[in-house]
From TrEMBL:
Protein keywords: Kinase, Transferase
Protein's name according to its UniProt entry: Kinase
Any GO BP: secondary metabolic process
SUPFAM superfamilies assigned to the protein according to its UniProt record, in alphabetical order: Protein kinase-like (PK-like)
InterPro entries the record matches: Kinase-like_dom_sf, NH2Glyco/OHUrea_AB-resist_kin
GO molecular function per UniProt: kinase activity; phosphotransferase activity, alcohol group as acceptor
Length: 306
């Protein structure tokens, strides 16, 4: 029997695809199929969020990771992004099965998160190195959304909150909407981006110091990729005697190491921070302490203008 925490079992039981198929039975079947298809022994899963992810071993003892996606667009987008990177700066996709929406992945060892690196400047430098490796030209045929697709929620929120209470200060929401629209319209170099490259999605490995995992797959300019990094590990920012100075150093460092314009990094980080809070606003328990931190970080970024 495959191990699953109760909260994940409930979420899986509620999931289904466009045809109404899915649920916990589908997940168990996909795991059993994977064991037989790839000759695996599946071990206790990692901390589960939306998808089932667990370490496993092949018959020859090779350590791997099995990922079964619950019905969504994630499987198609993630396996396409992994295939494009082909292990360059990112975890390798060893095999996949479309019908079961299952991926067999390289296991990264020791697999420690970049968030464990206490020196924030060093962590940002390593993240920038990964960013430089994983950006790829946009192929002629692809399934990826654009950052404009992701950003539509900003304009929708701005209109819906015109006469209602906004979870975000109105001035900040207005600035985020304007920035996102201006930056999206003025992009020049478009590439395939990871889309969620924060400190917990970069792991230590043997074949490279650090490698990315869990790409979302989205089309946009390289500066967009910095947004997730800048709105995570925020306790380090707010524990500092001068939080604004730490945020400024983060932005300046990424601009220098990625050869991107500072103002574009700042603008994308601010607008994405607001967008992420709007996405969270639909979830039970909103706003969380982390949501409040992200809003505070966006306010710091607003002070860095110019």
């Amino acid at each position: 029997m495959f191990m699953m925490p109760d909260n994940f079992t409930y979420r899986a039981s509620q999931s289904c695809d466009a045809t109404g198929n899915g649920g916990i039975e589908r997940l168990y079947a996909a795991l059993k199929n994977s064991e037989a298809r790839w000759n695996l022994t599946i071990e206790q899963p990692f901390n589960l969020s939306f998808n089932y992810v667990a370490p496993a071993r092949r018959a020859d003892g090779t350590a791997v990771v099995i990922k079964v996606c619950l019905p969504s667009d994630e499987f198609a987008l993630q396996h396409a992004a992994l295939r494009i990177c082909n292990g360059h700066g990112m975890v390798r996709l060893l095999d996949y099965h479309e019908e079961d929406e299952t991926m067999l992945l390289e296991r990264l060892e020791p697999g420690v998160m970049l968030s464990t690196v206490e020196d924030d400047e060093e962590a940002f430098s390593q993240a920038a190195a990964v960013m430089r490796q994983i950006r790829h030209p946009v192929p002629a045929q692809h399934p990826f959304p654009t950052i404009q697709d992701w950003g539509r929620a900003l304009a929708t929120a701005r209109a819906s909150y015109a006469q209602n209470s906004s979870p975000i200060p109105s001035k900040l929401l207005d600035e985020a909407c304007v920035l996102f629209a201006e930056l999206a319209a003025s992009q020049t170099e478009l590439v395939v981006l990871h889309g969620d490259l924060h400190q917990e999605n970069i792991l230590s490995a043997e074949r490279a110091p650090w490698l990315a995992i869990d790409p979302k797959g989205v089309i946009g300019e390289p500066a967009y990729e910095t947004g997730s990094l800048l709105r995570n590990e925020l306790q380090r920012v707010f524990d500092a005697p001068q939080p604004l100075r730490v945020m400024a150093r983060r932005v300046d460092q990424l601009a220098a190491e990625l050869d991107c314009k500072r103002e574009r990094i700042r603008g994308w980080a601010l607008s994405q921070a607001v967008l992420s809070v709007l996405w969270d606003a639909k979830e039970p328990g909103f706003p969380t302490a982390f949501d409040r931190q992200i809003i505070a970080a966006a306010e710091l970024l607003a002070q860095l203008k110019g």
